Please model this.
Amino acid sequence: MENNCNRTPCLSCAINKLTHSCNCDIEHPFEFDSLFALFDYDQKTQAIIHHIKYRGKKRFAYDLGYNFCKLIPDSLFNDIEIALPIPLHWTRQFSRGYNQAQQIGMGIIDGKNLPIHFLTDIVKRIRSTGTQTKLDKASRNKNISDAFRILKPDMIKGKRVLLFDDVVTTGATVNSCARALIQSGCASVSVCALARD
Model:
């Protein structure tokens, strides 16, 4: 896996500018303030994430976050008060047995030894959106729209939140979750992902 030492990421959306282009210099089209990704989503990271999601490698997800957290700049965590994983729908979590974004996030928080509250009961995915892998950007946005509900808005009101996810492709999922958080009174949202496509 190639890390950020070999990437030229956009500081807002984490697109690798050596391989893709974005419009963040003109307009940042997301609800979240910034996105940091440890790796590009290539064949190696695809294989690793496949094992994490479909081969029961729960501990591997935690270990990836823990061992590679040193590549994440400390500035990402400035003023962050609460960390949250992107939730799975209960049917997906039941069949998988765990949430890979939660495992990655816990590994990063533990590896960085951060005094940040890691909470898993704030956001609920209220619709089973299925896999977004084969959908285009417009279809992804429509599919994930209004898929999240904030269960405890008082816990995040006025807070700076960091969201964790495994892979960000178009940003539709993290953006939808960030929108729900902002609409519930969250002060700001940043995103940390294992990989960015």
